[in-house]
Every structure is written in C-alpha cells, then in structure tokens.
Input
Amino acid sequence: MTSPVALVPPLDNEDLLSLILVHLPPLASSFSSPALVCKRWHRLVRDPGFLRRLRAFHRTPPVLGFFHNSPDSPRFVATQGMSGIRIATAVRDLRRDSAGGMWWFVDCRHGRALLRSRDWVDLLVWDPITGHRVLITVPDQVRVGASDCNAAVLCPSGATGCGGACRSSPFSVVVVFTRGHRAFACVYSSLIRAWGELVSMPTPSQECELTEEPGAFVGDEMYWLLGESSILEFRLSDQKLALVERPLEIFSVYRRNIRVLRSEGSVLGLAAVKNFSLHLWAREADLCGTTKWVLHRAIELCTLLELPLTQPHVGSIPVWISGLGEDGNVVFLRTIVGMFVLWPETMQFKMVTNNVLMKTVYPYAKFYFPEGNSNYPHYFC
Output
C-alpha cells in the first residue's frame, strides 16, 4: 500500500513569496486578501522592507483620484481603490480660519497637495493621507500687483521619491507670477521656513498670460505655459527663469487645449487635443544638440472612448485635457458625456464621473496601504 502523497506546504521562502507579491498592482485593494492568508503573509505585506521593494519595482505611484475646485468647496473623486473614501472625507473638512474660509487647489505633487486662499495671502501644504498641514504666508512683494499666479509643491528628491518619511521630509514651494512685461519667481523652503529672493526676467509681451493649469517638473526644472507661444522655465538649482519657445505654427491649432508634462525619458513634453485626437509631443535633442519638438503619438479618442458622433454646441470643445499624472502616464479628459481617465501606455480607460463642468483637475498619486482593519494607513511616497 502506497503512502498518501504529502500535501505541498505553502511557500516557505519569503524572498520568493515577496518576489511574487511585488508584481501585484500597487494598490491597497491588492494586498487586503494576501494579508488575510496567514500571519506570516500579513507580516510580509506590512513590512517596510517589502513596501520599499514594491515601490522600487513599480517606481511610479498609482493615481488614486483627483481633486477639483467647485463653487462651494474643493472635492475629491476616486479613480481606483478604497482610499478615495478617506481622502474625500478629509478634503471636505478643510477650512480656512479667516474671512472667506475656503481653499483652492493649485497643485498636487510627490504625495502632497498645495492649496491657496482666494487672495493668495496664504498657501497650505497638505498631506491628504496623514492630514499633516503647513500654513505659509505669501509675502506682499509676491502677490501685490501680480497679474497671474501659479505655484508648485516639490520634494527635493523629485521623481525618485522621499524614501517614505513623507510627513517629515523637507519640501519647497515655487510661486510664479507676471507683472507688466516681466515674469517673477520666489521659492519657500521648509528647511529654513523662509522665502528666498525674488527673481525675474522679461516676457515677450505684456499679454503673456500665465495659465492656471498645473506645471510639469522635469529633472531640476519646473515648467508652466506662458501665453500662446512660450513655456516658462524655472531652474531650482540656481533659481533662474528662462523661456522655452513653442513653434507657433504647430501649437496654435490647439489653442488653450494643451498641457506641459514630463515625457518618457524625463524630457519636457506636451499633451494636446484637437477635436477628438490626443497628441503627445516631446522636446528632444538631435545628435548635434539642437532641440526640436517631435510628435510621438496621436490617439483617436472618438472611437476609443466610444463618444457620440454628434457635434457639440458652437464654440464648445468636444474633448478637453483636464489633468495629467506627474509622469504623463495618466490623462484626464473632459468630454461631452463625462470625465474619462486614460492610461496611454496600455490604452485602458474608464469614465470616472458624468460631471461635464470640471475644467481643471489635480491628480493625486501615492502608494497607500491601510494597516489591516485599522483606520490608520501605512504609506510612503
């Protein structure tokens, strides 16, 4: 009589198990079931070492959703995972302790959100996961007389992340604005809790409007759209302003339906829409070192998103770029039927809301893993 076949034990090699689990999508929902298998699996998926390995493997944090400014209060719309419930509740509790009492989103980057008061007197740096807040007063020399303002919150380590200590890691806030024929910039550092010197440069004309849409962080530079044919560049290393030209004959066809982004290879890029076509451009250097704009992709959205063929009202735009992920890996598109999120790399998409009134959204990306059934999350950038 042969002995019964011994049952194959579960994976005992934690390195092998870790290698398998690290391929799961970097969302909290991906690890809720493995954490319930046994105590060993639960300990593994909550271990900081595994989370660092997961982050190193996936590199780019998932976009959990987006913030948008509404007439009554800012709001959050989740795109994936259960973390959206927590964030949506937290944003509703944001209040400003002064007249007006309302915050407006300006930027989301490196796991933090940047908000402003209506009059730009105050800025608020906020971590939506931990709730940590830093209130910053804007100097009079920055806001008084400014025609157009924009700002960005940055982690010094940039796209490489901050190693997990998001709450305590230093950050910088860059404020840019125009006044007359000049563009200005000023940087706040959380390390010294102070503003630096105000720097400026001339603009091509007084009509160069600094757009309100979020900029792009590429290498050591921040970029914002300026007017119809220029991009404003701010270099953090030496805090210098410069202009990047956009060939007017190419980009004028997009009008305002265009955004700056960090393209593949960490170069400056543009995402633009003409009618129902999404165009992805990159600013590349040839063998002689001469930079030029190159069209990388053209995505026909009408068939992909199954949009109705009926023409929109006269003067309206059928598809509008409302927001971009930090790496340009996610595009939010407002259409005549609702807001879609599109992943250009995989061509996956889904509708996230039927609200057709949102012009600008602020995508929020972060690795986020709740601790079992606890209400307190385990997080890292």
User: Anything to note?
Assistant: Residues 253 and 347 are 25 Å apart (CA to CA). The chain is about 15% helix and 40% strand.
